[in-house]
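Dear support,

We are seeing what looks like truncated structure output for some complexes. This example has two components. We would appreciate it if you could run it in full and send us the complete token output so we can diff it against ours.
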Amino acid sequence: MFLAQNLVNGVLLGGLYVCIAIGFSLIWGVLNIINFLHGSLIVLGSYIAYFAFVYFGISPFIAPLFIMPLMFGLGYALQRSVLNVVIGKPVLITLTLTFGLDLILNNLMLWGFTANFRRVVFEHPFPTFEVHGIVIPGDRLTAMALAFLLTLIFFLLLNRSRIGRAIVAVRNDRDAAVLMGVNVKQIYAITFATGVAFAGAAGSLLSVVFPISPINSGILLGKAFVICILGGLGSIGGVVVGGLALGIIESVGAMVAGPEYTVLISFLVLLVVLVVKPSGIAGKLGYE
Amino acid sequence: MQNAQAHSSRRQMTANVGFAALAVLIVALLVLPHYLDNYSLRLATTVFMYCVLAWSWNFIGGFVGYPSFGIAAFFGMGSYVGAIMLTQNMIPFWLSPVCAAFVCLVVAALLGAPILRLRGHYFAVASLAIGEVFRELAMNWTALTGGGMGVNLPPLRSTFGTDSQIFYYMFLLLAGVTLAVTFLVARSRLGVAFRCIRQNEEAANMIGIDATRAKIIAFALSAAFPGAAGAIYASWVGYIDPSDVFDIIISVKAPVMVLLGGVGTVAGPAVGALLYLAFEEIVWRNLLQFHAAVLGLIIVLLVLFMPNGFVDASRRRKLLGRA
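Here is the complete output from our reference environment:
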């Protein structure tokens, strides 16, 4: 029973983790950039959702509707102005650059919002369900459902829209995509912006479940790393597998070893997967 | 004939001038602590520490060309090895960097074998993850490390000089050793192997270079010296905790300093270390609240506008010694 409860917790958490990592995986897969900013961008999304909730009473479950376009704009501008310069450069350059950008954004958030933890507290708390003795909190369930809905939208965007097909084409074969008339510069900017928009949406959903603070960004970034390596780059399926796997590993790991060991366990798993099977559980070339 | 003679005697003279300048520099560095106030002495000590980190990173990141972000892992591990051994009174102070370097060397060699098979982004992520694993271990192995509470180290109380003078000489000595090893490696067969791997690993293997062995040596070297630096640092500041000594920024600082000075050279990292500390100090003194943001900005500008380093490639060859 105890194990079942932990598995359910893991899946609930895993749904959110999928949402955390999907933009990170897209940017890494298509632009070949490890986006160190990702954690801070998620936190930024959480703050926008928090302030929208406090000042305008907008539920963080609806907030992605305006957070995503906002973050898309930010991502587009960032890619066009700064990141575009280092496209195709070695990882040393790109990772160092995004690390520098992360220092800036995180410092600004610490200054603007302070390090105090904030929380979205609903006036009418969500009901908690109980099925065969397993407790399922309503807010987490809603957050997970929305996370999966976002993932589905992401999947449709990549597979059904012209721009999505162009993104996949650029990932598969950049030169061939150019020959087919794809504007690669434009696609890079749109891809990065989409990744940032999904970071914002993930932040919005997370604000309901976890406390918000700029000092969380490192933890969130670490999770994105683990999920991408675990599931493998290059597919939405990989992110879903990786996210759910991390959620379950953390919940069961907390049960077996204690909650303080979850980060250690997840990074050990990351190292083992990297060494044994660097392509992850479900990694592949195309971004489908 | 006369021309050649004149040429060789001029070379001889340049070499003599070079040695004389080196001797003057060494003497100056040795007597410097007696003329500096505590603040300047601290800055000078930090420069040597940064030089050690930059030269260490240069082994794996510069010569071999593997994008390591693992300096913090071994700096942190070294500082904990030193701190634990000193607080348990197992060894005298001067031995702690030696022990820390040895432990880091062995651990890095063992970890290097599996992770050095990875390349590019995957190697970068693996080296980052090692630091995270070490930090979490230090955080949770409370019986050994004191966990998040950190470790307090005893002051030196030496008869040879004030504590700050002794730490200055310790870091000076360590920087000297690191530099000497860098020179030896750069001029040896191993250095040739390193550069071959950077240019084309498959080709290096083909002409009979044991690339795996060379990479493991480079990785172990780039772990041993930060380990020793960590051990001295722990005694110097007197208190360490996991979030301080395993901070990712240490792992980024090292390559940034090397980028600032010029990748793959002997003197470049030292120039970079000096420049970086100058930036850092100006920012710390004037913009305490925004120091992280401004450092971030400096990193961004550096990467965008000076990806080849401060010392331009054509001049690097003449002035700073080819490596």
